[in-house]
Design brief:
It contains five helices and eleven strands, in the order αββββββββααβαββα.
């Protein structure tokens, strides 16, 4: 019985240890590769900016500069309208939106840069987190890709209201909603905000800002994976079962 309790406690302890590991507040990374679905595009027009941009989330493969030099994938969305981060270069910062000096989601680095309000940051972070979950739970799904394209366009529209029009606006997948319908739905999604991370190019731009491109990442790479949650639940379940059996034995 003691061995059962010990094993169960170890399982629960390992799960708690995994949960307790904080996501790194900030680290330097190298961008190895990037990929995205380029089916959908959006036009962004505000001030001097007239851009047609691919509208969808981006999967980055990155490597930590600091040892142990781990390599992993991150999925996120453009905060700025440009996709101009260079692969293979150093000097990119992976940061949390909480607890870091200088809010990494503070500004859209357009021309000129635009400071984001608290409401905008909350709404953007909610959209980014939702897009991440859609991408994670529906790999390769055409409808999910259509939705993440609409989420990206909705992020730009949240930053610059009235600036975004969609191409492929009537596109639908398998009889589902269209690109435009999803866009209209997500522009109106004003959540309370979620914790997100960012990848930021730390080079100075022409305005003296510390970055000229930011991608918002919907999930830090070192949060508990489903297997960790399963391990924790299994640990608690085994502990409870062992304790129950012990009580029955004592009562007998």
């Amino acid at each position: 019985m003691k061995s059962i309790l010990k094993g169960a406690a170890l399982a629960a302890g390992l799960a708690f240890a995994a949960l307790a590991q904080p996501a790194a507040a900030s680290s330097q990374i190298t961008l190895n590769s990037a990929s995205m679905d380029g089916t959908y595009t959006a036009n962004i027009n505000y001030g001097a900016i007239h851009v047609t941009a691919y509208s969808n989330g981006v999967t980055f493969n990155v490597t930590d500069i600091a040892p142990p030099n781990a390599t992993y994938d991150l999925f996120g969305f453009c905060i700025d309208i440009y996709h101009d981060m260079y692969l293979g270069g150093l000097g990119y910062t992976y940061s949390s939106t909480y607890g870091d000096p200088g809010d990494p989601l503070a500004t859209d680095y357009g021309t000129p840069p635009v400071a984001l309000s608290s409401d905008q940051k909350n709404w953007i972070s909610s959209l980014v987190d939702l897009g991440f979950v859609l991408h994670r739970d529906n790999p390769g799904d055409a409808t999910a890709s259509l939705e993440t394209a609409a989420i990206q366009a909705a992020i730009w529209e949240t930053i610059h209201p009235g600036s975004v029009t969609l191409n492929n606006g009537g596109a639908a997948v398998g009889g589902s909603q269209t690109y435009q319908q999803y866009f209209d739905q997500y522009v109106g999604l004003h959540g309370a905000g979620d914790r997100i991370f960012t990848i930021t190019d730390t080079a100075k731009d022409g305005y003296g800002n510390g970055a000229h491109q930011t991608f918002a990442i919907g999930w830090p790479r070192d949060v508990p994976e489903p297997a960790t949650w399963a391990l924790m639940i299994l640990g608690f379940g085994a502990t409870g079962l062992a304790l129950r059996r012990r009580r029955v034995a004592l009562a007998a």
